[in-house]
Design a protein that fits this description.
There is one protein chain. The chain has 366 residues and is of the alpha/beta class. It has one domain: Alpha-Beta Barrel (TIM Barrel). It is 37% helix and 14% strand. It contains 14 helices and twelve strands. The strands form three sheets. Strands 3-4-5-8-9-10-11-12 form an eight-stranded parallel barrel, surrounded by six helices. A two-stranded antiparallel ribbon has the order 1-2. Strands 6-7 form a two-stranded antiparallel ribbon. Helix 1 runs parallel beside helix 11, helix 3 crosses helix 4 and helix 6 runs antiparallel to helix 14.
């Protein structure tokens, strides 16, 4: 299958507009695990996604305390070299392996970053990581300038092709950009968690930083078969049990929003999950969306998002559903125009400037 592609900012990477997310396949036994997972199913899911046209996989060292990277490495090695996907990973969350359910330390000291990159290269079985990302901002006092300087060295040495960050705000993005261009940003973004559409996504669009959003289906809520019963059946160590979006009163609002997507999905002949993912891709500046799967069947549930383009009437219907259900928070509709320039220009903003990006943040929500 030929899936639509987009440039990842100025990185030189051309990626399919959806990628395979490997968080859940890390399995259980750690603070943000999804419960037990069969590795054979995980490998089959990755191979099926690649065979279906996806050309990138996103993982992280913390997922399953390294296990996700190992599984991704096994899957990629089995794929012919000419067909292998780009491999993206993240670091900077250091676990206490003697207490795996303890919150990881967010450590971006240069020496720690280098040690993590070497470990990730080994687990993934690759000579160079296509995109290496800082998973979260440092929490132990390391200046971002020092951390990003180490990223520059890793790129210069050929261990990393492109450098990105995840969960960074505009202030940190700006500071990193002064040291070296930030190739990509990975923020949370979905119909329920929409806040990134008001700040970091416009900033990235203005600076040529690619954006790959995570949890576009809100970790499963915005999928066709999700239900309250599914929450009750989750493993005891599934992190979603502790998350407010999976508890009342938010759960009822979220499920009402999910149901409101059914008519749109029916019109396009796709799943609700595909509509939820495509909504994130309709925002100017978004290069791709990370979509997780634990089996080949789950891949089939959202793969149609790879070629789905929502129309203006679809987006208006979704905005009305957000207003009606009051699910989530953040802007309800992307800027107008194929790349968002129409809305920026009508407010007298220069889309290529920082001033334009900052001003865009305070435009009315609708």
């Amino acid at each position: 299958m030929n899936l639509l592609t987009r440039p990842l900012g100025k990185s030189g990477l051309e990626i399919t507009q959806i990628g395979f997310g490997a968080w859940a396949i890390g399995g259980g036994g750690w603070a943000y695990g999804w419960g037990s997972q069969d590795d054979a199913q995980s490998i089959a899911a990755i191979k099926h996604a690649v065979a279906s046209g996806i050309n990138w996989v996103d993982t992280a060292a913390i997922y399953g305390l390294g296990h996700s990277e190992e599984v991704v490495g096994k899957a990629v090695r089995d794929i012919p070299a000419a067909e292998r996907p780009y491999v993206f990973t993240k670091g900077g969350m250091i676990p206490d392996r003697s207490q795996p359910y303890k919150e990881p330390v967010r450590d971006l000291r240069p020496e720690s970053i280098r040690k993590e990159v070497e470990a990730s290269l080994h687990r993934l079985g690759v000579e160079r990581i296509d995109l290496y990302q800082f998973h979260w901002p440092d929490a132990i006092g390391t200046p971002i300038e020092e951390s990003w300087g180490e990223m520059v060295r890793l790129i210069d040495e050929g261990k990393v092709r492109a450098g990105g960050v995840s969960n960074f705000d505009v202030g940190l993005l700006w500071r990193a950009e002064r040291v070296r261009h930030v190739d990509s940003l990975q923020p949370p973004f979905s119909l329920i968690h929409r806040q990134s559409g008001a700040d970091v996504i416009p900033w990235s669009a203005a600076h040529g930083t690619g954006v790959i959003v995570y949890s576009p289906m809100q970790s499963g809520i915005l999928t066709d078969g999700f239900s309250r019963a599914r929450v009750e059946d989750m493993a005891a160590d599934d992190w979603r049990r502790r998350n407010g979006e999976f508890q009342e009163p938010a759960l009822s609002r979220n499920l009402a929003l999910r149901d409101a997507l059914r008519p749109i999905a029916s019109r396009h002949g796709v799943s609700i999950a595909a509509v939820a993912v495509a909504w994130t891709l309709s925002w100017p500046g978004v290069s791709g969306a990370i979509v997780g799967a634990r089996s080949p069947q789950q891949v089939d549930g959202w793969i149609s998002a790879g070629n789905l383009i929502l129309q203006a009437d679809d987006l208006a219907e979704i905005a009305a559903a957000l207003e009606r259900t009051q699910a989530g928070a953040g802007p309800r509709q992307p800027a107008g125009g194929s790349d968002g320039r129409d809305t920026w220009l009508e407010h007298g903003l220069d889309p290529s400037s920082l001033e334009g990006a900052i001003a865009r943040m305070v435009l009315p929500v609708n």
